[in-house]
Specification:
Blueprint: E1 9-14, E2 18-25, E3 40-43, E4 49-51, E5 53-60, E6 70-76, H1 78-89, E7 95-103, E8 112-121, E9 135-144, E10 146-148, E11 154-156, E12 162-171, H2 173-215
Antiparallel strand pairs: 1-2, 2-5, 3-4, 5-6, 7-8, 8-9, 9-12, 10-11
C-alpha cells in the first residue's frame, strides 16, 4: 500500500535559482533530563549523541535541476533560530551569526564532515554600496581534519577545510521573518505538545522512587 509522504518541512523560501528550507529535527529529552524538554547531547543508546535541532536545507538551481543542482545541509539549535528571529523583531541594523561544526567518523584520509552556516544583515556590500536586500544566508558543506582541544572538544585543523558545496540566498527582512516566525511558532507548539507527558512521566517516576525509599 502506498502511503502519502509526510514532510518535515516547517517553512520554505524559493525563487528561480535558490531554495531555502527549515525542517523539524527536534528530539525530546530523556525522562532523566525531563526539564530540558529538548535533547541536548544525551546518549542515544548506540554510542551517538542525541540533539534537538532545526535543519536547514539549501539548493542552488543556477546550474540546472536534478543532479546538476547544488544541495547543502546544516543544523542550528531551536534557541539559535529564535535568537536570529529576535534580531529582526528588535530592529538590529547589522548582525552576524556564524557557526562551524565538524563531526562524524573520519575517512581513510583523516577527514570528517563539516558544515558552515552564516546569517548576516548588512547595510552595505563589500564595495560599500547600499544593499536593498539586507539579509545574506549561506550554508556550506565540506570536510576537514578534526583535532581535540585541552577540554576534550573538537575543532577543525587550520587550513584543512575542503568545500564540497556552497549555496547562498539574499532575503528581505520580511522574507526571513516569515521563515523564522513559522519556525519559532512550530518550536513552541512542539514544546507544548511534548512537555506535558514528559513532565508527568518524570514526576511519577520520582514519586514512585520516593515511595519505595520511604517504605524501605
Amino acid at each position: 500500500m502506498n502511503e502519502e509522504y509526510i514532510s518535515t518541512q516547517i517553512a520554505v523560501y524559493k525563487n528561480s535559482k535558490t531554495l531555502l528550507e527549515f525542517h523539524d529535527k527536534l528530539k525530546v529529552a530523556s525522562m532523566y533530563s525531563y526539564a530540558h524538554i529538548h535533547a541536548d547531547g544525551e546518549d542515544n543508546g548506540d554510542g551517538r549523541r542525541k540533539h534537538s535541532l532545526i535543519g536547514i536545507l539549501m539548493k542552488d538551481y543556477s546550474g540546472g535541476t536534478g543532479d546538476k543542482a547544488v544541495t547543502v545541509k546544516a543544523n542550528i539549535s531551536p534557541e539559535e533560530a529564535k535568537f536570529i528571529l529576535s534580531r529582526i523583531t528588535t530592529g538590529f541594523s547589522e548582525y552576524t551569526f556564524q557557526q562551524e561544526k565538524i563531526f562524524g567518523q573520519k575517512d581513510e584520509k583523516g577527514y570528517a564532515q563539516v558544515t558552515k552556516v552564516r546569517f548576516i544583515r548588512a547595510l552595505k556590500d563589500s564595495k560599500g554600496n547600499a544593499r536593498k536586500i539586507p539579509w545574506y544566508v549561506e550554508v556550506e558543506n565540506g570536510k576537514g581534519i578534526p583535532l581535540k582541544n585541552a577540554t576534550g572538544g573538537t575543532y577543525m585543523k587550520s587550513g584543512s577545510f575542503i568545500s564540497t558545496g556552497k549555496v547562498y540566498a539574499n532575503l528581505t527582512d520580511l522574507d526571513l521573518f516569515k521563515l523564522l516566525s513559522r519556525v519559532s511558532s512550530y518550536i513552541d507548539a512542539w514544546e507544548h505538545s511534548i512537555a506535558p507527558s514528559l513532565i508527568t512521566m518524570a514526576k511519577k517516576a520520582m514519586e514512585n522512587r520516593q515511595a519505595q525509599q520511604n517504605a524501605a
